[in-house]
Write a sequence for this structure.
């Protein structure tokens, strides 16, 4: 970054929610929604991620349909081809599922048409959160948290229900 400009002139630093213009050393094609990170702490990038999803629509999830996801300031076309499991809210057990209905919580695989620049939600809430939008109705149908890159190894990791319990519900 060569300089940070605002209406009043140049700044040494900028932070949210400031509106700034970044001048870069090299001529690089960047635009609103692109992520700039330090070389020493690069963010992860992947088009295939494992996520936790809360389904907020009365219309069930259609795994054959393309959705839009809003991740940061970007809208990206994506598919949700696989439900790894959904939470049975009575027993708090992970159960197999073919679809998701209103208020279902599930671990799903998400495949975006372009790579996402992200941090896992547990590390960075802003870079790890997204919403799912029905591309036909423009309704928000789900909210999600990115767990990490989708790999076979990632699928074998312990689930969130294996972690510490609050003591409010049975363990």
């Amino acid at each position: 970054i060569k300089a940070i400009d605002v209406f009043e002139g140049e700044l040494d630093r900028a932070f949210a929610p400031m509106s700034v213009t970044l001048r870069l050393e090299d001529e690089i094609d960047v635009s609103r929604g692109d992520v700039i990170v330090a070389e020493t702490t690069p963010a992860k990038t992947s088009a295939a991620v494992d996520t936790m999803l809360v389904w907020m629509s009365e219309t069930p999830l259609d795994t054959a349909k393309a959705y839009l996801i809003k991740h940061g300031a970007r809208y990206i076309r994506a598919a949700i081809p696989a439900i790894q499991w959904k939470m049975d809210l009575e027993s708090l057990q992970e159960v197999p599922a073919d679809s998701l209905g209103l208020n279902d919580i599930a671990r799903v695989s998400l495949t975006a048409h372009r790579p996402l620049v992200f941090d896992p939600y547990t590390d960075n809430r802003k870079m790890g959160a997204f919403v799912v939008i029905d591309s036909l109705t423009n309704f928000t149908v789900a909210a999600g948290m990115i767990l990490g890159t989708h790999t076979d190894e990632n699928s074998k990791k312990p689930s969130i229900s294996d972690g510490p319990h609050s003591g409010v519900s049975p363990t």
Confidence is low (pLDDT under 50) at residues 152-171. The two ends are 50 Å apart (CA to CA). The first strand starts at residue 3 and ends at 6.
